[in-house]
């Protein structure tokens, strides 16, 4: 049986991170997580380094602005912190309207990947809904983008935003294949109203089918916002994922 890796995007707990970063990581570890996806690691680099040393948590991945940000600095800091995969979380919607624009965006990310290889850091991309809303000859913009990426650039598929964008996450995983190395998992009604998002297993997402479609992908809990206690949402999400993955 494939070993399941569970993580949490710390953006979900951003308010707590800003006030008590080491305490937040300690609470995440106490829930049973062994991995985290770092948020604002460039800003909190030293605090993350100290806090990670005090827990068993591994920084498998992190988000950073790579296409429009200081990619070389982000890669350098990622390598210092032991971050395995550095993920571009957002390329603006205006760059997804034509095939040429999409391929140009992919070329930009490929440039970052070439920079990162020598540092031992893998580069990836995380989608929202705009990457899948437009049709390009029967394919989404995300698929066009993936075809233009270098072989070692990976995808972190936000399954919720794919579904909100009108595409089956399961079918998209099937078409994108092994390039999908991380899954962002959240739940709720299919809406862009962030506060209506719910813990995994408490909304409309076909979670069991999604997990089955990507058995080797890292399961990353992430809520963009939540009306209740985000720690409780994360705890409930992990419990549900472990149960469904059995």
Automatic annotation (TrEMBL):
Coiled-coil intervals, chain numbering:
none
**An MF annotation (GO) of this entry:** isomerase activity
The UniProt keywords, alphabetically, are: Isomerase
Q: Which InterPro entries match?
A: IolE/XylAMocC-like, Xyl_isomerase-like_sf, Xyl_isomerase-like_TIM-brl
Per the record, the domain of life is Bacteria
The family database entries (SUPFAM superfamilies) matched by this protein are listed as: Xylose isomerase-like
Q: Does the keyword Isomerase apply?
A: yes
Q: Which residues are in the Xylose isomerase-like TIM barrel domain?
A: 26-241
Q: What is this protein called?
A: Sugar phosphate isomerase/epimerase
Source organism of the structure: Streptomyces africanus
């Amino acid at each position: 049986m494939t070993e399941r890796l569970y993580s949490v995007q710390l953006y979900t707990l951003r308010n707590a991170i800003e006030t008590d970063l080491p305490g937040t990581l300690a609470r995440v570890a106490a829930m049973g997580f062994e991995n985290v996806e770092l948020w604002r690691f460039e800003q909190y680099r030293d605090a993350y380094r100290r806090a990670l040393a005090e827990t068993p948590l591994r920084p498998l991945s992190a988000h950073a602005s790579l296409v429009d940000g200081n990619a070389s600095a982000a890669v350098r800091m990622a390598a210092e912190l032991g971050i395995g995969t550095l993920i571009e979380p957002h390329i603006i919607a205006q760059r997804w309207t034509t095939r040429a624009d999409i391929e140009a965006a992919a070329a930009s990310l490929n440039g970052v990947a070439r920079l990162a290889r020598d540092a031992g850091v893998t580069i990836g991309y995380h989608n929202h809904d705009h990457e899948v809303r437009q049709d390009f000859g029967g394919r989404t913009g995300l698929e066009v983008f993936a075809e233009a990426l270098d072989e070692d650039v990976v995808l972190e598929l936000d399954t919720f935003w794919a579904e909100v964008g009108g595409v089956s996450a399961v079918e998209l995983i099937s078409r994108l294949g092994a390039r999908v190395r991380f899954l962002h998992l959240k739940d709720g009604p299919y809406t862009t109203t962030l506060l209506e998002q719910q813990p995994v297993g408490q909304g409309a997402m076909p979670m069991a089918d999604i997990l089955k479609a990507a058995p080797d992908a890292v399961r990353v809990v992430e809520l963009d916002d939540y009306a209740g206690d985000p720690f409780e949402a994360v705890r409930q999400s992990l419990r549900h994922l472990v149960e469904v993955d059995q």
